[in-house]
Amino acid sequence: MTSHENEYVLGTDDAELVRLGLQHRLWSAQAFACWERAGVTPGHTVLDVGSGPGFASLDLAQLVTASGRVIAVDESERFLRYLAQRAASLGIAHIETRVGDVHTLDIPAQSVDVAYARWVLCFTPRPEDVVARVASALKPGGVFAVQDYINWGALSLSPRSDAFLRVMPSVGKSWRDRGGDWQVGGRLPALLAARGLRVDYIEPLQRVARSTDPLWQWPTTFFANFIPRLVEQGLVSERDWREMESDWNERSRDPNAFFWTPSMVEIVARRV
Ligand SMILES: C[S@@+](CC[C@H](N)C(=O)[O-])C[C@H]1O[C@@H](n2cnc3c(N)ncnc32)[C@H](O)[C@@H]1O
C-alpha cells in the first residue's frame, strides 16, 4: 500500500483483495442477473463505480466485448493497479482504470450506457453527489444499476451467539464514523428520481448461508478481516472478539447453523 493510499473502512491489503475476489464469485450470479436486467450488451460503455480490484469489471469487459469499453473508477490506486495487471495478463485492452473519488467523477456527459455500483454507496458520505455525477455521465436511456445494503443490521446467526450480538453494533458504528450508511438502499429511489432517473426495478437481495454452503465463507472472511481492525481501534474488546470467533468456529462445524445475510436491494434506474 502506498503512503497516500486512501483507505476505505475495510482496507486495501492483500487479505481484503482476496476477500473481494471471493465475494464477487459468491455473488456473481446476482451480478450477472442484474447486468442482464440493465441490458449490458456488446459495444456498450459501462462505468464500474467504485470497482475495487475490478472483479466485476473483468466480467463486464467480457460482456461488452472488445467493441465496448469498461471504465473502472476507484479511490484505491492499489486495487486499480491489480485490475490493470490482470486485464493485461488476460489480453483485455478495453478496460480503462481511473483513480478517483466517485463523489467527483469526471466522465464526459452522456457517454455511458450502463453504470454499476455494488457495495460502494454504503461507504460514500454523500451518495447524492455520486448519483448526480453518474446521472450526468449516462446517455439518455442509459441505466444505473445498484446493488447495496438496505439493512445491514438485519443479519443474524443461528444458533444465536451473545458475543456476535455484542460485536455487530460496532461494525455499524465504524462504518458511520467514516460517513457510511448501511441502510443507504432506502434513500436511493428518491436520490435517483431527483436526478431524472426513473426507477424501473427494485427488489430485495436476501440470502441464507448454511454452514455447509460456499456462501458461509462470505461472513467468515468478512469477520476475520474486519473485526481485528475494530479491536485495534478499541471499538471491540479482544475478549468479545475471541468469544465471537470461538462461537463462529463452533457454528461452522454445526450442519444446522445458518447465517441470514444483511439485507440488500437491487435498483435499476433509467435516465429518461
Ligand atoms: C466493498 S468494495 C466493492 C468493490 C466492487 N464494487 C465490488 O463489488 O467488488 C468498496 C470499494 O469502494 C471504494 N470506495 C469507497 N469510497 C469511495 C470513494 N469515495 N471514491 C472511490 N472509491 C470508493 C473502495 O476503495 C472499495 O474498492
How do you describe this structure in short?
The protein has 272 residues and is α/β, with parallel strands linked by helices. It has helices at 14-26, 28-38, 55-64, 77-89, 127-137, 162-177, 188-194, 217-232, 238-252, and strands at residues 45-49, 69-74, 95-99, 112-118, 138-151, 156-158, 197-205, 208-210, 258-260, 263-271.
Spell out the blueprint of helices and strands.
Elements: H1 14-26, H2 28-38, E1 45-49, H3 55-64, E2 69-74, H4 77-89, E3 95-99, E4 112-118, H5 127-137, E5 138-151, E6 156-158, H6 162-177, H7 188-194, E7 197-205, E8 208-210, H8 217-232, H9 238-252, E9 258-260, E10 263-271
Parallel strand pairs: 1-2, 1-4, 2-3, 4-5
Antiparallel strand pairs: 5-10, 6-9, 7-10, 8-9
Helix pairs in contact: 1-8, 6-9, 8-9
The structure holds S-adenosylmethionine.
Written overview of the protein:
With 272 residues, this protein is of the alpha/beta class. The protein has a single domain, classed as Rossmann fold, CATH 3.40.50.150. Helix content is 41%, strand content 24%. The chain is built from 9 helices and 10 strands. Strands 3-2-1-4-5-10-7 form a 7-stranded mixed beta sheet, sandwiched between helices. A 3-stranded antiparallel beta sheet has the order 6-9-8, with no helix packed on it. Residues 8, 20, 24, 50-52, 55-56, 74-76, 79, 101-103, 118-120, 123-124 line the site of S-adenosylmethionine (SAM).
